[in-house]
Description:
The chain is an alpha/beta fold. It has helices spanning 21-32, 42-50, 61-65, 70-83, 89-99, 105-118, 126-135, 141-153, 157-172, 185-207, 216-229, 306-316, 320-324, 329-340, 353-364, 377-384, 395-401, 410-427, and strands at residues 252-253, 261-269, 279-288, 291-299, 344-347, 373-376. Helix 4 (70-83) crosses helix 5 (89-99), helix 4 packs parallel to helix 6 (105-118) and helix 5 runs antiparallel to helix 6.
Amino acid sequence: MRCLNCGRESEGLLCPACQTVESLAGVFDALIYFNPEKCENPHIIDYAATLPEGISLRDVIPQLLALFPVKVVEYFACLYAKVIRNPQFEEMALAYLSAHDLAEENSQRILQKLLEHYLRNDFIKPRKWCDLVRERNLAGAELITLVIQNYSMTGEYALAEEMIQTAQDACRKGEAHFLYGIEDQERMDGRMKQLEKLKDDNERYRTVKPYWPSTEERRRAVALLYDEKGISYPRIESRPQKVAEYDFKPLVEYDGTPPDSYCAFWCAAGFSVVAAKCIYEIAAVKVRSGNIQGCFQSYVRVWDGIAARKAAAKDGGISLEALEGADDVDIVMKHFFEFVGNDVLVSTDALGEQGKLISRAARYAGMEKIKNPFLDLLDLAEDTLSDLDLAKVSREYLLKQFNIPERTNALSKAHANQHLYQKLLTMGG
């Protein structure tokens, strides 16, 4: 075979003359991040073509490192362990950092990989390293990015802001230092954009909602830090799995004498380009013998993503922060059905659009059915008002006929349903 560095005949991956740290560094980077279109080493390209199917250049790195004493290659061994996700990477990195000064660039690169390993998985262990980077003013841009992210995600917003400002000043002066690659204007411009995003993220975590991991285990870990700082956070438990539409039991229509005790309700949904909408607010009023005994109203954190939450906030005339901070749908629906109990649920279009909205909310809350019967005021109006022009039956028409005012929020609409129902009961005798 040929030496991967110089191309001379060799018994190993590197010939004796090329068994230096400098040669190892060049060959190592080309092997571990091999890209045939960008690789500038023809000997490595030729060698890659000889490898059997299923074997990558990355797989031969242990053979390469075996040509050197262990102490010489511990830096490269750490990097390799990180890339192949070796469970021993953390132990290897900590051992390396305990034996080398953080001022050394290789140490900062190992620390950067270690913080990358911790990011979003561990919120306690990185803290001492982040503080060391800040206190010693270590300059590696890639390392600083991870420190800022860690501070932002653990509620240390002031420290993150301080480091962002320092890094921005360094970029403006052309003094930013990168652990990988050269410092040119293009990289400086890219760094400034990255810092602006970090700044926006930090401010959003501070003012809208703190960083919140995707798994319950990680949520509990970061919640401990938030508790120490008095930072409020969303629920910890994950939302129940939604029930498929075909597994959800059909709504039950109320077919008895108009009830004297009931709950008038309303679901508010934002604009959607698809047929299936999700609610952002739900309300109900509990009525006994014509008198209101209690009210329920709650925003719902829209579950169809940030675009849907923005649309809901705009349509509802409420702040995005109010929706972002609202409870998840399963918590809201649990409280809603505790409030309504076994009452008949009354609304215009209760078996139409309102029925679809509350059914979808129930499915996303993990419910397989709604036990309460539904009374549709539009149907009741058709049965009650014999002289009514059926072609005009609509919520808007009925509210205008009976001079019932309402505002845009869900509770006001639930109250309007209650007034409308009482009017229809009176006219029905």
